[in-house]
């Protein structure tokens, strides 16, 4: 995955460096294997989108400096924990071009390390954070689990509509990004109205982000993705481009036959990609992305200081532009 | 597994009924599958040892009534979450004589439901509990994960000593039971010294409980256990009876050859059980159990009210007597 251009997060650059350092520090365990897996996960990196949005939103108000780093670290640890469990569930071999924890250390240690990271996340924030904010974190983890379970249950099922898809994307991805932004606004001591607007911004960014991810499964190369092309399709995850093609392609019955296959061959996946590409599915899906991004831009509170506002607008631009 | 005799927990009988009700209430999810799996896990029951000890210890002091139920429920939810993940890790087909969640709904939904239960546990206590007590919970989850990972790493390894074993049992089981008791003493507003003694009691009970479990893997029937006999041995988990036999049996080299096998046949397991049984391993291990239980009885604070004291002593008696 591409990193965000440095200038977007210029205002929180030092914070981001501090987060990296703190992530390594907090995961330290007397058990070597726990250390090895956790360090691998931190090194695997990623965009640190959620803690960056948390920090940006906090700096849009007047934050209490002491609480920023622990919360930012907790948010990233929760994200890391969900990723390591997702990779077990998807039986993924690579993520961001590196072997997954499950590929390297097995499913069992990976499940336990995910649990360990969840617990470490709460250890990081328990003592210094207001309880209603801890509740936001625990609630959003429940929601993410529900979203993932619905996704599992509905895989290989072509009889879904866009409303099902949007609910799933909200639960899996957008609600957590919304919560990261909301927690930032709360740390920034914004008023209730602005907190709600910032949350809405995060939600829209999250929807756009996940739909883009779902598009890239069809358009990016394996090298760009750091994982195989058509990975979602192969797992029977019915994303927006597939839903569009299932409705609008002249080959929709053939596509339907592919989507329901629990064990797709490489040729099935290739043909599925072809059918989707031959429709306007990608353009249609980008249309949805842009509509969410426009909404994200529109709901930003007017009172926000201009540097933060520009950064949050730049995040919206980037999410719309990223091609891998 | 056997239930505790009713009279042991007579003093907290109403609380235990309330816990059952609250467990069903808190796991409710708009997602049917999440509900189904969670309800299955609550119904699978168990002794509710940890919340019962929490409540008993709390009632040994002067508890704030409002905080008891949420914490007791959180403790049981955390225990349930670890069990569902353990069953995935052990690839277990049955627990307490019923199909496991992974056997019925697959590993993936089970991993996610475990995560959901962890998060629900914290949702239950975040708003109404002092932060230092939340920290006790998060820290002990980290410890349990470390213990389980060490167990995985050291499976099929005959070169362990009793100190390794005790550390593992402490991390896997005793520390959480110790924390349940400690949290009870804190809810009961006991003084620092008594809190430490109660924690020590819980630790000793936990050690005795797990060593007994490890003995029962050799001595109980499959019907009594609700899972296959020799299950730990088959998974390469080197428990106290095995360690004893590896040191003292005339057939120790043969046993060593069995323990290192990653895929033991039924005959291997049967022969392993025979070799262990032909030594004093079971008697020796029960000797350790009794020594921990004696310590548990001795460390109970003198100031404890007599009904609670008698219940806690009865728990120690029961742990020593249970044969399945």
CATH-derived topology of chain A: Farnesyl Diphosphate Synthase
Q: How far apart are the termini of chain A?
A: 6 Å
In the CATH scheme, the class of chain A would be: Mainly Alpha
In this structure, how is the largest beta sheet of chain A organized?
2 strands, antiparallel
Helical/strand content category of chain A: mainly alpha
Tell me the CATH architecture of chain A.
Orthogonal Bundle
Count of helix runs of chain A: 16
Reading the helices and strands of chain A in chain order gives HHHHEEHHHHHHHHHHHH
Q: Mean pLDDT score of chain A, rounded?
A: 92
Strand content of chain A: under 5%
Cα shape of chain A: globular
Helix content estimate of chain A: over 70%
Chains forming the largest contact: A-B, 41 and 41 residues
Name the quaternary structure: homodimer
Tally of distinct domains of chain A: 1
- Report the radius of gyration of chain A as a whole number of Å: 20 Å
Extract low-pLDDT stretches of chain A: none
The strand line-up of the biggest sheet of chain A is: 1-2
CATH homologous superfamily caption of chain A: Farnesyl Diphosphate Synthase
- Tell me how many strands of chain A there are: 2
